[in-house]
Amino acid sequence: MASRIFGSGIKRREDPRLITGQARYTDDFVLPGMAHLAVVRSPYAHAKIRAVRTKKVAAMDGVLGVFTGKDMKDAGFGPIPCAWVVPGSETKTPPYPPIAIDVARYVGNAVAIVVATDRYLARDAAEAVEVEYDPLPAVADAEKATGKGQPQLHADVPNNVCFHWKVSGGDVEAAFKSADVVVQERIINQRLIPNAMEPRAALAQYSPATNEVTLWVTSQNPHIVRFLLSLDTGIPEQKIRVIAPEVGGGFGSKIPHYPEDSMVIFASKMCGCPVKWTETRSENYRGTIHGRDHIQDVEMAAKKDGTILALRAKVWANLGAYLSTASTGIPTILHGLMLSGAYDIKNIHEDVYGVFTNTTPTDAYRGAGRPEATFMVERLVDLVAQKLKMDPADIRRKNFIPPFTDGHAVATGLTYDSGNYVGALDKALAMAGYAALRKQQAELRKKGEHMGIGFSTYAEICGLGPSQVAGAVGFGGGLWESAIVRFHPSGKVVVMVGISPHGQGEETTFAQIVSSELGVPVDDVEVVHGDTERTPMGWGSYGSRSTPVGSGALMGAITKIREKSKIVTAHLLEAAVEDIEYADGKFFVKGSPGKFKTIQDVALMANVAWNYPKGLEPGLEASAFFDPPNFVYPFGAHIAVVRVDAETGEIRLERYIAVDDCGRVINPMIVEGQIHGGIVQGIGQALWEGAVYDESAQLLTGSMMDYALPKADFFPKFELAMTETPTTVNPLGVKGIGETGTIASTPAVYNAVMDALLPLGIRKLDMPLTPERVWRAIQSARR
Amino acid sequence: MYSDNFEYYRPKTVSEAAQLLKKHKGSRLLAGGHSLLPAMKFRLANPKAVIDIGAIKGLCGIQMRGKTLWIGATTTHADIAASPVLRKACPVLAETAAQIGDLQVRNRGTIGGSIAHADPAADFPTVLVALGATIVARGGKGERKIPADKFFVDLFTTALKSGEIVTAILVAPHGRHTAGVYAKHPHPASRYAVAGVAAIVELKDGVCARASLVVGGATANPVVITAAETALAGRKPDGPTIEKAASAVAAAIPDPMGDTYASGEFRVHLATVLAKRALTAAVERARG
User: Nearest CA of chain B to the CA of A25: how many Å?
Assistant: First the structure.
């Protein structure tokens, strides 16, 4: 039976193979004669590489080769390209060699590679490589790195400033002058480590006979990786095949084209055999991108009645030691353009300094730029409310952009698609039982207990995006999507897509769409993704774009299939094409629903073409591309309720209410799953997670023993609901839901803790809100 | 990732294991592998030989032997947590086991491995010292019984002599008016104890006949808070008395350890609060 397109929570077809361990990840692939690569990484944050002694190790039994950065360069392997250079910001793009040459710039920077017949042997051999370093002074803090006398990372980047980007709208100066109240804050949006469950891996098989290479790699966007590899490996794009088999989570950390992708190709070429590299968790903590890491000086101006007039910010964004693939776009386009949030703020100005430091490169991490914007706005709104003694719900309601369905322009230049922010807030307040909660809080406060209620009413930008805009903002690619729908003679369907889901469930939702729109049982639809040779060009899965953009392409192909099927049906039923209609998997003659052909009938005839319209191409296959006219802007209202133990500083999350709006909902179960995971990840930032570097830029939180990822038992049952405000940006009216939870939940929980501590006069704490930080704040407040 | 440059043995008896330990210099014992393997992966431990004692019969189990509880060294945390014998005779031990790591860790990790490793943030050392447990060790020169408070010598260092293997832990079962509580602030990443406090209280006619208070997590080894025990002995354990006893924690830990998550000062503070809570709960229980 065909499935419904909207609202049907069918189970994820991906899950049985994932849960039972039958899925095949990159590391599961074993090729005949395959060798293993291990990376020698710098233990210093900044050091001159005086010598890499490879001879002794190269002579070890089972070692096939030891190579340095110079070896790769000499073999024609160029620097890793940066794929996003924000225009008008004097962006510097210093070379990012896959293996450091002369200077190592962060702990974990590759300085040599070893290839051996066995994985353990390769690792032991890598440990035996002697590298002579001259340690140099290092800097990990982005603001500090721009100061006088600080270590300089790259030759042509004075004061380590990679770019200075600005966004302006309205008249900020005048707005601040006319304001009744101004609040100021320094917000540290701390560095996070993405921690996908599957570490990265790459396996290359190079064929000297044809100069072709196949790369199996943990990627969210194999087509982009192929494109970038063609720029730095010297192998032409048509000779590169990139396969992203099962990918165990990414959260953005598997967007970049990484040095190891080039290393395994180089090694396969040099050693004449397939070469695999699989990251250890320790390597993952140092060698895979980190996220966030902003220092933000922010201020907000408002009138006495709570009307927000303006927002001004100066941000130091830590880029790490080199520019990762999308690095410069995250703290600029995906951050600065979203400073309005859900509010009608007419005057906005932000300066963003992108800064190189001796740390692991940063790039997109779930939410990517928007959490840093949302936290800023949501915190400032609360601070204004405190100053004016307003209820945080009331000030939000007062400043929301009123409900709109056909576009709303904000001060930063974006036009939001659709929104009903007050609708989401009202629903969340009702679910929370807000008045009763405040009453309970007042009673507890009388008893000296600390309960807090926190809000986050966010709007975010995703569904990346219109390709013209991508080009205008310096992204080095398009952002459209593609799909091919192919019917086999038996009526079964293969759908090939350019997106590359890695946990999001589009194998299920896309099958659901095809099933509903073409009338085939959902189990008859196979969704193929993640292989540049089996799928049409597409830009991959990130920025919550797979469904909003990918389904646009899919709907295009479905429409073409329907149109062609009508022609075939008209021929078979000896009717006029204009008289053929479609409903529930049947093509019938208008007015006589008994006279019909099923899609399976059409598929068989189109494939055999025995009795077929003259001049019509045989086969039932259509391909389509979809370039959305705008981004999509999901939104919602989250409310957190916490209790703080003043004696120990421990925080207990008592309730979490989330109302989200991602337009039309295809599969509610999958949407809920995305929201759950997102909320957990965002609360991780508020309460537990944070990468810590010491003065010499050594990573102190280098493993899961020290870096606290959220665990299931840290949370209460979430109370979720949806509102549905469709978008006009794509055929199905759907918005992305992959990142909203992460974007919303950090400020909701942070604001709740601050609300709990308000009677003590505490207005600021740095994240994560560890018990010690809370306890110390309480101690000094009581003094 | 650990080196594959080591030998692996799986002896069948304790004496065979002891011989292997003696023969292979720099060898390490492997029980549940939850301390040794992570250390090897970080290459903090690089043993020449790994001697897996998992196949030795008679090292595992929980029994009442006469008037003493016998717990085999390779008994897992999960088995201790679920043991009906312990739940009745010494519930605090079962409850402590249930607070270790997560389910996977508890299914693999062993009590003998935990104490032989002597991690300052481990849970069992604190409770065993508070319970006045005895560690049974066997080496080339036969069996030796070591009181728990003499067993933990320094950071990751025990009183075990070279070639000695922990075979069992002996604990006296609780009397009718004795109760114990282990209160812990787990590290959110590892769930090791940032501070862990064991309180054992014996009441006689509403008066504290004997109390034991031990703090782990803040120092290299568990610290017995003697002043607290004295403050409670012979007194009615009411709120102010408990508060006073708990306040003795700070003076007993003048030089606490700290890390990026919790400073030494905060650990001592946590231990003080946990001591108060553990003593209060233990008294409550002992009253029945």
Answer: 19
